[in-house]
């Protein structure tokens, strides 16, 4: 019984030592804090001026010592993606893969018409709002009374109407996003106007 207690104490002690060495390693890897004194005559006392200068110089909070911030494309910030999902939100989705750039709906029929249904796939070729950024395919499934079904790609005006609707919504979302960003950070937008 005593040997089990001694072994347990030894294991606890080893775990504590390992824990403290791990903490010490990570704290040491952070390196010393870099303090760079500045001349108060060269730095504006106005916080807005300092923010503008830091933005122009690309300074800001960074993790892991990165030199530049990355570009992050999230589904909620991609106007084409949002517009597509909003346009076909009445249809059930089979797959919506943002990283793969594709949205596929399930078969959908209006008024419970079991003999005719459609399926839509939207493939994203670009994040830019333009007519060649999307590849929209509409499939039509027609069944007779004995459940013999044929599936054909519908190349009619439905795909062009979907394209027009998605592009209009995406353009509206982009305009709203630009206006929202102007209100949030007037310094960045003032730089954009001069370019």
Structural features:
195 residues, alpha+beta, Alpha-D-Glucose-1,6-Bisphosphate, Chain A, domain 4, 2 domains, five-stranded antiparallel beta sheet, 5 helices, 44% helix, disordered C terminus
User: Cα distance, first to last residue?
Assistant: 79 Å
Task: Compute the CA-based radius of gyration.
Answer: 29 Å
Average per-residue pLDDT, rounded, comes to: 77
Secondary structure: helix percent: 40-55%
Number of domains: 2
How many β strands by DSSP? 5
Query: Which structural class matches the secondary elements?
Result: alpha+beta
Strands side by side in the biggest sheet: 1-2-3-4-5
- Tally the helices: 5
State the major sheet: 5 strands, antiparallel
Order of helices and strands: HHHEEEEEHH
Q: What is the overall silhouette? A: flat
**Runs with pLDDT <50, length 5+?**
61-72, 190-195
CATH topology of the largest domain: Alpha-D-Glucose-1,6-Bisphosphate, Chain A, domain 4
**CATH architecture grouping of the largest domain:** 2-Layer Sandwich
Strand content: 15-25%
CATH C-level class of the largest domain is Alpha Beta
